[in-house]
Amino acid sequence: MTVKKTTGEKQQIDWGITIFPLIAILVLAGMLMLFPDSATQILGSLKGFLVNDLGFLYMIFGLGVLLISLYIAFSKYGNIKLGNLEKPRHSNFSWGAMIFTSTMAADILFYSLIEWGFYYNSHPFGIEALTAAQRQDYASMFPLFHWGPIAWGFYILPAAAYGYMMYVKKSHKQRMSEACRPIFGKKVDGPLGKVIDIFAIVGLLAATATTFSVATPLLSGAFCTLTGMEASPIVDICILAFIALVFTLAVLFGIKGISKLATVCIILFFLLLAIFFFFGPTRYIIESGITGLGGVANNFISMSTWMDPLRLSGDGNTGFPQDWTIFYWAYWISWSVATPFFIGKISEGRTIRQTIIGAYISGVSATFLSFIVFGNYGLYQQTHGIIDPAGILAAGGKPAEAILQIFGTLPWPKIGMIVLVLAMIAFYASTFDALTLVISSYSVKNIKSDEEPSKQLRIFWCIVFIVLPTALLFNESTLSLLQTLSICAALPIMIIIGLIIAGFIKDLRTRRKEVEKTTVEKVLIVSDEIVEE
Hints:
By secondary structure, this protein is an all-alpha fold. It has one domain (15-67, 100-163, 209-485). It contains 21 helices and two strands. It has helices spanning 15-34, 36-74, 92-101, 105-120, 132-146, 149-167, 176-179, 181-184, 191-227, 233-250, 254-278, 282-305, 320-335, 339-345, 352-383, 389-394, 399-407, 413-442, 455-465, 467-475, 479-532, and strands at 2-4, 10-12. Strands 1-2 form a two-stranded antiparallel sheet. Helix 2 (36-74) packs across helix 15, helix 3 packs across helix 11 (254-278) and helix 3 (92-101) crosses helix 15 (352-383). The longest helix is centred in the C-terminal third of the chain and has 54 residues, at 479-532.
């Protein structure tokens, strides 16, 4: 089967890479729906092994990615330009907005409202008896760490590698296997390349399933509160189907549509921020935000390397870093299959330094702003005894229930919920529109950097994206099960990304030698000409 390119040529679909991930997801979805207890037990065993025995790999990898990205950005490699444009294809605002809204913005909005509640009753660093001040500080500090520079590094370093592959090497394939070519050479054109790409796509589908399954109940709960309907899994699935319809329609507009949708997302995002900031405890939000930022700066190395060897902060099987830090690193790694490709694709005309540093500034600043305002608003309600979201979570309640309780403290809660629903739908549409753009490129055998996959192919992937989340909603999956999916999917992807980074560094060094050799040859030619004269 072939589909037309934007250039009038034809794109050949790689059926192996397209069909095998679909089969894997259908099998997993079927197991979760038909044998929920057995599937949950198997995944739980895998999580125990990966977290307890191999968790240190995620921690080392995270810190290493951050350090390597900063080294490349500030080295002479940072001057390399991605493409031949005189100026970047997208303005700084449009580029930064797309990076934030088209990555994990819907997740960021969700977790910034409630993540602090999971930490409020936890015991970071194995401290058993926390004071009220320590609870407050850790609850505002750890969300910033888990969504800060290390997390964004999982996107940004591969994004620079993919941008280099697309605009400097002029590759006609936009896949993780192609980014491994400097290491494996022509082997990526055979079965090895297929295996890499299949693992990548399955991992991404698992990560997006986690996103949908966590945040959809919040949208459903807000919708039911506004309309008076009774919440149920059927309502959740209808909401999921509507979101899928929205981002499927968004596919019709390509990257220009993503850019415009990103602007809408930013407007809604800042409107919701303004509601929480100006109609909430403004002074508390500012002071807690400053305290949280200071805490991350002071404890960054400790937080990046704390493994809790004695498991003093958990239930005896796993501790705080195993339940949260390792989960988040795995979560971001799983998303690194597609998001870095999108960042690399929209970075044409920028240097590697501008791409890395600019992406850190855009992603981290917007993320921190979200967690500081939304998170500390809820934390204020908790610490001042107005509501008890942390208690709801500690008792096994759903995060969506706790978040809606927080919205109930706003002066006009229904207005806040309306903006929340609109913002999350827009964020979902922007994020998954970008993902389908990238994942569809995996399904095409050859595609240039200035081309987009066919709309039919992208609509196919839009449908595939909601298969596993639907099964998880029917399964009424717990947060622990969703975390397990991400952690299991991330291990092979982490290995692949490590190979991509190694190949990127190898390419940069090869290019430097070639440039130096060319420079020497030019100098010798000029010297010979002078001697002859």
